[in-house]
Amino acid sequence: MKKKILLCLGICALAMASMAQVPPISHIDANNVRGTVLGDGTVFLNYQSDDDINPCPSWEVPMGSGKSTVFQKSLWIGGLDATDQLYLAAMRYGQTASVQGGGQDYWSGPLSTADATLDLMTALKFHRIWSLTRAEIEQFKANYNNAAYQIPEDILTWPAHGEGDYAQDLAPFVDVNGDGRYTPADGDYPDIKGDHCLFFIFNDNYKAHTESNGLPLGVEVHAMVYAFEAPNDEALDNTVFTHYKMINRSSRDYHDVYLGLWYDWDIGYAQDDYVGCDVRRNSFYAYNGYEIDGNGEPSSYGDNCPAQVTTILSTPENLGMTGFMYHNNDASVTGDPREAEEYYLLLRGCWKDGVHMQYGGNAYPGTPGCVGPECNYMYPGDSDPDNIGTNGIAPNEGYNTNGKYWTDEEAGNEPFDRRGLGMVGPFVFPAGSVKELDLAEITVWKNSSASAMERRGEFIDQIISFFNNLKK
Asked: Mean of the pLDDT values across residues 168-179?
């Protein structure tokens, strides 16, 4: 008996170690994009492929090309409790030097409604990504009561309900007979979005945060990544959507909460990119700084270089995108965050020393081209005619009028490896409440008459219209 107990403990320990180091992985591939999706909050990441041998691009576009525009994307969440204590979850690369095996702020699985914790067996059960297509759903609806039909595993195991102290309602489903229980034998089926959908649940309170060193919020996140087959719609055929449903399972009410969408873009060759934002369209983006991408590398786009856009479609309290900034790949005051307080400062549009961004140059006061006043959006170009980003105050030195607009290129920067952060906040996040966020990642290509950047607004407008019609 003792040997059996030790064996069981050993298996559990190995399972815990595996779960901590290897997040669940899948791919979204309904259209021209093949996105590598991780189920631990990093979402898109340049990771090893399923056979763990061949590298798999994070955001391979066109699919099958081996070329990619995104190295990694992560969700950041930070807020204060009633005593103004900071709680924060944020991933970048999971490579915190002081932690063996890398840092981690998110784990698979839901949290208990009683105390916002997660037990090992539930964590293992949810350490996966459910992948379904619209065709599979339609086939199920037509054949579920046919004895010869084999129901797909991801329909049979769809995580509609939690057990014990975990929430009764988790993954959305169509309840055909209205009994409140997910039963595929009765014809119930997953309620998915798009023609291909990935669904997973993650949380920030399984263990201590070793990436940001922030205190866990006790937040449970339901993520659905989806895309549409649209060979006759260029914008939709190059777009992937993400829906986040965030639940505060803790007993704390949070205020001054900010969400961040953090990106490390690599538009083909990583060292020659610019970034910017479109204030009116709640969007931010990366694009190639030169007419030709790279120097002939297999991963470079050459003269057919796209722009990569993130459009925030819906937010808590209808705030929209409230800020955008980039940071450098270094340890300077404008560089990579290391501690929770630095992550939170970036979420609020401040540099790591607490100084708020200012208009012009590289947005740090006292550096060349930084003219003021304080601003919330870096490199808005001509997208902010009403000076929303400077709280209605016209920027100094004649900016934002008569063709003088602040961009990465106008600031005199050399194209380089850029990281960027789109922000939403502040808002309140009471205990037990739910907040939702929708966004679209859009790859924009040039055509015979216009560059990718010139076509960017057209693509964004089409996707916003499509999404708004979906909700009707």
From this structure: 97
pTM of the model: 0.94
Q: Is the pLDDT of residue 264 over 60?
A: yes
- Give the CA angle between residues 52, 46, 13 to the nearest 5°: 50
Q: How far apart are CA 289 and CA 411, in angstroms?
A: 13
Contact call for residues 225 and 35 (beta carbons, < 8 A): yes
Residue 17, pLDDT > 80, answer: no
**Which ranges of 101-233 does DSSP label H, i.e. alpha helix?**
120-125, 134-143, 153-156
- Residue 277 DSSP label: E
Per-residue model confidence as pLDDT tens digits over 89-127:
999 987 654 544 568 999 999 999 999 999 999 999 999
**Residue holding tokens 């189920």?**
39
Task: Give the Cα separation of 160 and 143 in Å (integer).
Answer: 21
The predicted pLDDT at position 40 comes to 81
Residue 426: domain span: 2-470
Portion of the chain with pLDDT greater than 70, in percent: 91
- Contact, 67 vs 294, CB < 8 A? no
Mean pLDDT, the chain, integer: 92
Upper half-sphere CA count for residue 40 (Cβ side, 13 Å): 27
Enumerate the β-bridge partners of residue 26.
37
Q: Number of folded domains in the chain?
A: 1
Which tokens in the block code for residue 253? Answer: 């009410």
| pLDDT given at position 302 | 96
| Residue whose token pair is 């030195």 | 397
For the segment 220-240, the average pLDDT, to the nearest whole number, is 98
Residue pair 277/379 in contact (Cβ under 8 Å)? The answer is yes
What is the rounded distance in angstroms from the CA atom of residue 166 to the CA atom of residue 460? Answer: 38
As a whole number, mean pLDDT of residues 288-301 equals 94
In 172-242, alpha helices (H): 234-237
Residue with tokens 């190059």: 238
